[in-house]
């Protein structure tokens, strides 16, 4: 079994990371999530698992800044769904939907990586160089040209138009 980090939450609302023997902030806990660290938050007095409420608190704080993930309509519907006979299935549905979304995102990134086959900046540099070459050849064509417009070929069996 993998190691699970224990974080204790004290009545004064402070979080204590037992692995590093130091108090941590909610932002530190969020970083553990981003880094893929396994952890559980326990109430320091009772020992109860309070991980979910702490995660909800992190979400609530981050929803206040930048582009929110949860719209007012979505949150309203989730609240309405509480107490419904199908309530237990909503969590599973949302979890599977998010997992599917993440898998599709990975697939798309992989396909784009295969198509590009290189770093985005290298591709942009190549496109810029190619455009610059096309522009130079266009300018040379203008500078070396006689100033007359190119003649058009007419399809066989038709007469050229006269003006």
Can you describe this structure?
With 163 residues, this protein is α+β, with helices and mostly antiparallel strands. It is built from 5 helices and 4 strands; from the N terminus they run βββαβαααα. β1 and β2 form a beta hairpin.
Summarize the structure.
This protein has helices at residues 26-34, 51-63, 72-81, 87-116, 120-144, and strands at residues 5-9, 15-17, 22-24, 39-43. It is an alpha+beta fold. The longest helix is centred in the middle third of the chain and has 30 residues, at 87-116.
Class from secondary-structure proportions: alpha+beta
Alpha plus pi helix count: 5
Strand portion? 5-15%
Average pLDDT, rounded to a whole number, is: 82
Q: Strand count, sense and closure of the main sheet?
A: 4 strands, mixed
Helix and strand element order: EEEHEHHHH
Count the E strands: 4
Estimate percent helicity: 40-55%
Terminal Cα span: 87 Å
Unreliable residue stretches: 146-150
Question: How would you summarize the topology of this molecule?
Answer:
Elements: E1 5-9, E2 15-17, E3 22-24, H1 26-34, E4 39-43, H2 51-63, H3 72-81, H4 87-116, H5 120-144
Parallel strand pairs: 1-4
Antiparallel strand pairs: 1-2, 2-3
Helix pairs in contact: 1-2
């Amino acid at each position: 079994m993998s190691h699970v980090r224990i974080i204790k939450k004290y009545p004064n609302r402070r979080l204590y990371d037992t692995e590093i023997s130091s108090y941590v902030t909610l932002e530190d806990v969020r970083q553990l999530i981003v880094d893929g660290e396994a952890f559980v938050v326990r109430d320091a007095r009772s020992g109860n698992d309070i991980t979910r409420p702490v995660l909800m608190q992190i979400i609530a704080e981050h929803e206040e800044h930048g582009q929110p993930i949860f719209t007012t309509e979505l949150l309203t519907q989730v609240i309405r769904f509480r107490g419904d006979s199908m309530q237990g299935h909503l969590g599973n549905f949302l979890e599977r939907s998010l997992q599917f979304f993440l898998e599709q995102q990975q697939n798309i990134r992989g396909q784009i990586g295969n198509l590009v086959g290189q770093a985005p900046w290298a591709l942009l540099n190549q496109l810029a160089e190619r455009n610059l070459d096309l522009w130079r050849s266009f300018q040379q064509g203008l500078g070396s040209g006689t100033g007359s417009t190119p003649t058009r070929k007419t399809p066989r069996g038709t007469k050229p138009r006269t003006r």
